[in-house]
Amino acid sequence: MINVYNSLLARDNGVMVQHPVSALTVGDLMSSPAVTCAENTSLGEAAGLMQHHDIGSVVVVEEGKVAGILTERDLLRAAAGGSDPNTEPVRAWMTANPDVLGPEEPAGTAWASLRHHRYRHLPVVEDGNLVGVVSMRNLMGAASLTAGDASLEAPRGLEGVIVATTAVGDVRGHEGFYHYRQYSAVDLAASRQFEDVWHLLLFGELPDLARRREFLDELHAHATLPESFRHVLATVASAGSPLEVLRTGISLLGAHRALQPLSDIDQATARADAIGLGAAVPVLLASTYRLARGLQVVEPRSDLPLAANYLWMLSGTEPDPEQARALDQYLIIATDHGFNASTFTARVISSTQADLASAICGAIGALSGPLHGGAPSRALDMLDAIGRVENAEAWLRSAVASDQRLMGFGHRIYRTEDPRAAFLRTVAQRLGGPLVDLAVEVEQVALRVLDELKPGRELHTNLEFYAGVVMDRCGIPRDLFTPTFAVARTVGWTVHVLEQMADNRLFRPSARYVGPPPPQPVPDL
Questions:
Q1: Do 391 and 338 lie in a common domain?
Q2: Which of 113, 130, 145 is the last residue of a domain?
Q3: Active site residue 464
Q4: Does the active-site annotation cover 179?
Q5: Taking every pair of C-alpha atoms in the chain, what is the biggest distance, in angstroms?
Q6: To pair with 477 at 20 to 30 A between CA atoms, which of 74, 85, 146, 357?
Q7: Is pTM beyond 0.85 here?
């Protein structure tokens, strides 16, 4: 059963769609009869049922009643958690007591329920008896067809649309929770160092002390840039902003190291390329930043982990342990966060089988936007503009009343407090200082003002608000805030590229044409 289990995990089933046919009912769309299993069925057996019936879920039934539902996503979580598919029971990973639908309910109700709960499958029950399962695949089959091709209407911005499967991590916005592999990202930041999390994402497990030392040695081997390449960096160091220079530096480094298209290399080579780029990014960033200011490059040290080394290379002074640990925790918190804009960009580029450096350059381009990675410095600019706690109420009310966006508040996914912001608040308070005190006070006023003036919008503090505060307290210049974010996120991007490479399909969505109706005669001159 292990081979069946693993092959099922590699499959990418289903796409969320926002075009159910309103006249249809759940009974018209559901798959019937439902494939079922018991709670003590092994994960391997359940996976075999899914593969045999070409379905994405099995309903768990006990004493004739629906007890839960097990989906492909649950199997991915179980695999990431290291579960043995031959012995682990379904009950350990199923969604217990799931919502159910009746067969007479409109298809639109199914869509709304699936989308609200971020489910992909729901049992259909009539008079207490299980009669089928309705899924996103069923809704997709009901979507309109144009010109012989399936045209699926997705929401603007692809919100809620599932475009791939991943074992890297996930974001559960309604719960205020996100994780890397099987571990809470916040728990990792509280108890581990950045290189441990890097190892976890690359290899699927946290290192012990001996393996950590080996991995640190491997990273340090890639951190020193050859002399011939430094001359190239000196010519581009002042060519733009630090983020633009970093993007250019990565492109040049990819060419210097002759990184090959993903189609021409194996996974081991791609992983080595990923480690090499990730280790080089903080060195590129610190080196070009100093060169642009007429300062000598500070060489990385083999006795320091990445966060402390980054502070050392930027300043040339011995890093403060408290600041180094705070930065290390920030990097962990920022390493990955679902299919955000830059991660999706990296995966789209890698789906073309381009080289790794090209995918990372594209991701940096996406990160440069103020709605993604460009907000930390702007959040700090807002605190500067407010200046004093007693100015906060009037300043924030004026900003909200004039429809200005409060940088550091609101998130596309979270409908509760961003766990990254909550954790970084504690990091900031540990560092202390007037800026931290101001930020904590302004946050409370901002949340109160937003709740009053934007009722029902569920606007909470996000990562960027305290990210800027923490980085400022660690001595990082503001124009390096977003590039420092890229230091962490490069690890996440490269791991996603490796995952895309392992089970690739070219991303090729469609667009709805809304221009003048063609064909029209071309006018004469």
A1: no
A2: 145
A3: yes
A4: no
A5: 79
A6: 357
A7: no
